[in-house]
Write a structure and sequence with these properties.
With 231 residues, the protein is of the alpha/beta class. The chain folds into two domains: 124 residues, Response regulator (Rossmann fold); 95 residues, Winged helix-like DNA-binding domain superfamily/Winged helix DNA-binding domain (Arc Repressor Mutant, subunit A). The protein contains eight helices and eleven strands. The radius of gyration is 19 Å and the shape is elongated. The protein starts with 5 loop residues before the first strand and ends with a strand. The mean pLDDT is 85. This protein is a positive regulator for the phosphate regulon. Transcription of this operon is positively regulated by PhoB and PhoR when phosphate is limited.
Length: 231
């Protein structure tokens, strides 16, 4: 999971993959592009995006087979999947949907229409990733205004602490390892060490724990950190 909605594009046609990545990132999504079905399957065992755009015909493992396997796994059985394919026949659409795809887009397609379908599916399946305001206990985060409040008192957070809190508030109570926090908040293309997470957790705690309030950030020894809902 990421503070931005995460989408994985599994498409072996390079030009289309680049086009999708560009347009989705322009809409504010974090995008990971993969060209092989078997590579995507390995990556999905490590972490799950908020939505999967999956081509039907892929090298390694076909999209239809990958979809079937994902639906058989507990971790990915509810992950939103939109299938991309040149197969427009009704029988093929039925086959794709019966395998577990949530939606089906036939190539060539309209990019604005695909973006609209992506947003509609995320609103249905994961409304929190598109919400303008997040709430966890007595903490509110306004994503449009970039402001944070606790018990209606505005807090002053640095940009990294803001992203860290936003990441926690997308899944209150869930324990995140330092590696998961590094990937979700800093991104996997930026090198920082585990100690960096501890430093910014300390800064976040200092910023949100004002007055006589309970510290909502729980340290789980040997596992990581979690944001508890405190009222």
């Amino acid at each position: 999971m990421s503070a931005k909605p995460r989408i994985m594009v599994v498409e072996d046609e390079e030009a289309l993959s680049i086009l999708l990545k560009y347009n989705l990132e322009a809409e504010g999504f974090e995008v990971e592009a993969v060209s092989r079905g078997d590579e995507a399957e390995d990556m999905l065992r490590e972490s799950q995006p908020d939505l999967l755009l999956l081509d039907w015909m892929l090298p390694g493992v076909s999209g239809i087979e990958l979809c079937r396997r994902l639906r058989a796994r507990r971790e990915t059985q509810d992950m939103p999947i939109i299938m991309l394919t040149a197969r427009g026949e009704e029988s093929e659409r039925i086959r794709g949907l019966s395998t577990g795809a949530d939606d089906y887009v036939v190539k060539p397609f309209s990019t604005p229409e695909l973006l609209a379908r992506v947003r509609a599916m995320l609103r249905r399946a994961k409304p929190e990733v598109l919400a303008d305001r997040l709430t966890a206990g007595d903490i509110q985060l306004d994503r449009e205004a970039h402001r944070v409040y606790r018990n209606e008192r505005e807090l002053k957070l640095g940009p990294t602490e803001y992203r860290l809190l936003e990441f926690f508030m997308l899944a209150p109570g869930r324990v995140f390892s330092r590696v998961q926090l590094l990937d979700g908040v800093w991104g996997d293309n930026i090198y920082v060490d585990d100690r960096t997470v501890d430093v910014h957790i300390g800064r976040l705690r200092k910023a949100i724990n004002i007055g006589r309030v309970k510290d909502p950030i729980r340290t789980v020894r040997g596992a990581g950190y979690a944001l508890e809902t405190v009222k």
